[in-house]
């Protein structure tokens, strides 16, 4: 007889108490068709990646070539440089009647394969924002690639209009060490690439010219690049 506080336990011979054994996983066997499909999917993925890589590489190469061609064919506006500028008769009190101003400017076409057509060129001379001279400038109608052309001229007589008051102001500036002038060259240009010609552009080249008390160009203005604008 057992008391109410005990539950009888029966042991089976040959068995040992412990945790239940873990069931073994069931192995699944795939068919040959399954493996062939996986191989086919892998090859398709690789082929797609290869096609995308080749396409992107070709696109990058075409873009680079297009950019290089665009840079080589993009027209650059002509460059102008002040070389010489001389005012004669500055020391003469009544020299404005015989005064003359001579200048030399270089026009540079820096384009590799592009020429420049010029129409009539006009020169205007400014002193204190007032026009004191104007003239027509002989200039070649065509400037080839990588070419430098001289632009020379002289303001005197009818092309230089300075009265006694203006001449007195010029002399006063000369006594102070610097007389400032502005030479403006105006023309219409168009670019030529092989047989193609661009539209016409009105161009202004503005050159600063400061002369000393002796009437010659100051060193800080010699070979100075002029400002070029298209209207």
TrEMBL record:
Chief subcellular location: membrane
Domain of life: Eukaryota
UniProt keywords, alphabetically: Membrane, Transmembrane, Transmembrane helix
Membrane topology according to the record: Single-pass membrane protein
Ranges annotated as spanning the membrane: 54-73
Region (Disordered): 1-28
GO cellular component: plasma membrane; plasmodesma
GO biological process: defense response to other organism
Record-linked InterPro entries: LEA_2, NDR1-like
Domain Late embryogenesis abundant protein LEA-2 subgroup: 104-207
Cellular localization per UniProt: Membrane
Protein name: Late embryogenesis abundant hydroxyproline-rich glycoprotein
Source lineage: Eukaryota, Viridiplantae, Streptophyta, Embryophyta, Tracheophyta
The encoding gene: 25485255
